[in-house]
Amino acid sequence: MKEKYLVINGGSSSLKFSLYSMPEEEIIAKGYFEKIGADDSFWSINYKDEVFKNEEKLNDHSTAVSVMIRELLNNKIINDLSEIKGVGHRVLHGGELYSESVLITDKVLNDIVDLTNLGPLHHPGEIAGIKAMQENLPGVPEVAVFDTAFHGTMPESNYIYAVPYEWYTKYKVRRYGFHGTSHKYITSYMQKKLNKKDVNLIICHVGSGASITCVKEGKSYDTSMGLTPLDGLVMGTRSGSIDPSIIKFISNEAGLSVDEIDNALNKNSGLKGICGKNDFRDVLKLIESGDKLGKLAYLVFMDSIIKHIAEYYFELEGKVDAMIFTAGVLENNVMLRKDIIDNISGAMHVYVNEGENEKIGYGRELKEGLITTEESSLPIYVIPTNEEVMIVRDCYEIVKRA
Ligand code: ADP
Is the CB of 210 under 6 A from ligand 1? Predict the structure, then answer.
């Protein structure tokens, strides 16, 4: 009998799951539950070539999980609940407490609850997901996989903000970094690919959220996101790093509250703030139609990527084993990949291999590959990220060890 593991992603009114067979890392089924708590809630489950779905009142996350279990059994996706050996949960923030994935005990759950101030948008849904699994699958080990954990190795000089030190000691204001599960996946992929444990990498994860991580000797050394995922790169709807004085200035000028400004920086800034479109494909359409703000948004977006690459190239003293482009935008967009490489080419001596670059992306021949020429000072690869596999892998290893 194959061992099965669930990966759970709890949102405030949604719950997504994937059922894996381990250690093969094969996906057996995937599904989602939406509008939990509302009158028009619905769910959908994909299994082999079939889709099971229904509109059904889901009062809370626990009801959603009980429906998930009912459907897994009714559709013979599993024969018995005892086949499920573990559950891995995506959790946003481990604060300074967790620099590794961990078996969820009462203490761990309490800590995740206490860390809600650092992840106010994510933690309530994730906590609901953990509790719902505990109620429906009592005794099955659960593991928390924190999006911040991989960055726990950053040196103090890279995580301390130059603000009153008391803000750190009293309130834990510091750089934490996010997308850690993705950066960890890519690091472990590259360690195998290059057959080198102490790899130095610059990993550019650019999707609707975006962050760049500098990996030194196989560990996160610096990263662009900060206390929250708002810091760093320009993103789909997020501003990335800005002059902090803008907050007071715009509050005075436009009469906005701190909450309203925070909302604007998170939801109405970035690509969307400049050109009105946050989906990168829509920005490309604007550019094709000759829209000036679309082009400007593209340039500002690209510039923020280039500046972070330059910063991390210097932090690694130029000793970079590879640079990696990953996540929705960089896995798929040929033009941005080429433009980035052309712009850093003069300083870093990297040259795009146009033929190989053209082959990679959605609807193209390949999903991954090397996109620089042999003369380049370092190789640049496109590698699809896989956060879910990283979660199920950590869960499997921790459950086996427990
Ligand atoms: P997240 O996980 O942060 O939601 P993703 O990594 O899924 O984000 O990336 C989403 C982004 O990738 C969107 O801006 C989308 O436009 C972009 N994207 C997806 N497919 C393509 C494509 N074929 N060409 C260009 N951009 C794409």
Answer: no
Task: Ligand 1 pocket test: pick from 186, 203, 208 the residue with the most ligand atoms within 8 Å of its Cβ.
Answer: 208
* Residues 371, 272 within the same domain: yes
Write out the catalytic residue numbers: 147
C-alpha angle 327/268/232, rounded to 5°?
Answer: 50
Domain count, the chain: 2
218, part of any domain = yes
**Are 232 and 142 within one domain?**
no
- Report yes or no on 178 lying in a domain: no
Closest by CA to 23, choosing from 5, 39, 36, is 5
**Cβ of 229 below 6 Å from ligand 1:** no
The interaxial angle of helices 123-136 and 61-74, nearest 10 deg, is: 50
SS3 label, residue 50: strand
Task: Provide the 3-class DSSP secondary structure of residue 260.
Answer: helix
Contact yes or no for 43/69 (Cβ under 8 A): no
Q: What is the pLDDT of residues 143-174, one digit of tens each?
A: 999 999 999 999 999 999 999 999 999 999 99
87 within 8 A of 142, measured Cβ to Cβ: yes
Quote the pTM value.
0.95
Give me the pLDDT at residue 251, please. 98
pLDDT (tens digit, 9 = 90+) per residue, 371-383? 999 999 999 999 9
Cα-based angle 325, 327, 333 (whole degrees, multiple of 5): 70
| CATH code of 132's domain | 3.30.420.40
Query: Comparing C-alpha atoms, which of 150, 223, 177, 210 is closest to residue 340?
Result: 210
Are residues 24 and 127 both part of a single domain? yes
Q: Where are the strands (E) in 267-339, listed by range?
A: 322-326
d(CA 4, CA 130): 18
Q: Scan for tokens 């790169």, then name that residue.
A: 233
Place of tokens 């009801």: 63
Are the beta carbons of 338 and 198 closer than 8 angstroms? no
Our answer on whether the CB atom of 329 is closer than 6 Å to any ligand 1 atom is yes
The whole-angstrom distance between residue 60's C-alpha and the CA centroid of its chain comes to 25
Range of 342's domain?
Answer: 195-387
